[in-house]
Specification:
The protein is an alpha/beta fold. The protein has a single domain, classed as TIM Barrel (Alpha-Beta Barrel), CATH 3.20.20. The protein is 42% helix and 12% strand. It has ten helices and ten strands. Strands 1, 2, 3, 8, 9 and 10 form a six-stranded parallel sheet that branches. It binds zinc ion (2 copies). One zinc ion (ZN) binds next to loops.
């Protein structure tokens, strides 16, 4: 029986802390998209894994953020005409996820989104990122479970275990680099890979990504769409058919800030609708990363017990 997992990397300004200027328009559209997505998932009763940057959960912040690549008191910065609060805080949005009818999973995504392979990243900094995430999530009654590494840079997995996390999103199986040319885009219209979650050497469940829903864009996207409709939706439809036949996991991911134009939202709407249709008409189910991790760990325990 196959499963679909949808994960979102929700970070507002923190996703752009290394950009100058921080793009206020992307953050503004991310805030709108966040609420629209909650409504969409509720409408189709599709639970997702929301990987949220911990700082967003703070009502206010008096931390110095020592050693942060964006500088001390980086959360004082007001990008464009936007209030600093709107860029670096978002407790109202996280609470909307927790109050949703769909049974979402709230996952860690670092405290300030410094990736674990950054030049300035140190073991103590990584530990502080994980510890602070746990402390802020506790304020909304959430315990550490699933984790999505900022920029998908997997590292310090032993620290994940130490801070109570038990699953993470691994890198998608690589078949090609980033698609830049139209010819590559057309060739890339194959089916996203179905993945097999596994228990790693730290006892963490790795739920690898299958596909980033906004992986190729810009003029290539316009050209392809003009000829054959949104190829990403087609690819997901094909993957859902393969999932029903072969089993495994189809793990799709994106960011709320990817939804800038109406057609971006339309893509996600059609994907969620296709997933709900597959669930209604085939044996395909929809799971969060946490649900997959529980299932895989249980199975792993049975296999290990049988081998003893
Ligand atoms: Zn702060
Ligand atoms: Zn991120």
């Amino acid at each position: 029986m196959g499963s679909v997992v949808i994960s979102l990397d929700a970070e507002l300004g923190w996703g752009f802390h290394d950009r100058d200027p921080v793009p206020a328009d992307r953050i503004r559209s991310a805030r709108t998209a966040w609420r629209d997505l909650c409504r969409l998932f509720d409408r189709f009763d599709v639970p997702a894994t929301w990987a949220v940057v911990g700082h967003l959960l703070l009502a206010d912040c008096d931390a110095e953020h020592p050693g942060h690549p964006a500088g001390p008191r980086c959360c004082d910065g007001a990008p464009g005409a936007m209030a600093a609060d709107e860029a670096w805080h978002g407790r109202d949005l996280v609470e909307r996820v927790l109050a949703a009818d769909a049974d979402h999973d709230l996952a860690g995504h670092g405290f300030t989104h410094v990736h674990f392979d950054h030049d300035l990243m140190r073991r103590e900094f990584a530990a502080a990122e994980l510890r602070a995430w746990g402390a802020t999530a506790a304020a909304v009654d959430v315990s550490p479970g699933s984790f999505v590494f900022p920029l998908n840079r997997v590292g310090y997995r032993d620290l994940l275990v130490e801070h109570g996390f038990d699953a993470y999103r691994g890198r998608q199986p690589s078949r090609r680099g980033r698609v830049r040319k139209l010819s590559d885009a057309l060739r890339a219209c194959g089916t996203p890979p179905l993945v097999s979650p596994s228990v790693d050497e730290y006892g963490l469940v790795n739920v690898p990504a299958s596909a980033y829903l906004f992986g190729f864009d810009g003029y290539v996207r316009s050209a392809v769409e003009a000829v054959r409709g949104d190829p990403v939706v087609d690819r997901v439809e094909r993957a859902l058919a393969a999932l029903d036949e072969r089993g495994g996991v189809l793990h799709l991911w994106f960011h709320p800030h990817d939804l800038v134009r109406e057609r971006d939202f339309e893509r996600v709407r059609r994907v969620v609708e296709a997933v709900a249709r597959a669930r209604a008409t085939t044996d395909v189910r929809v799971e969060t990363m946490a649900a997959v991790a529980d299932r895989v760990r249980e199975r792993h325990g049975e296999v290990s017990a049988a081998a003893r």
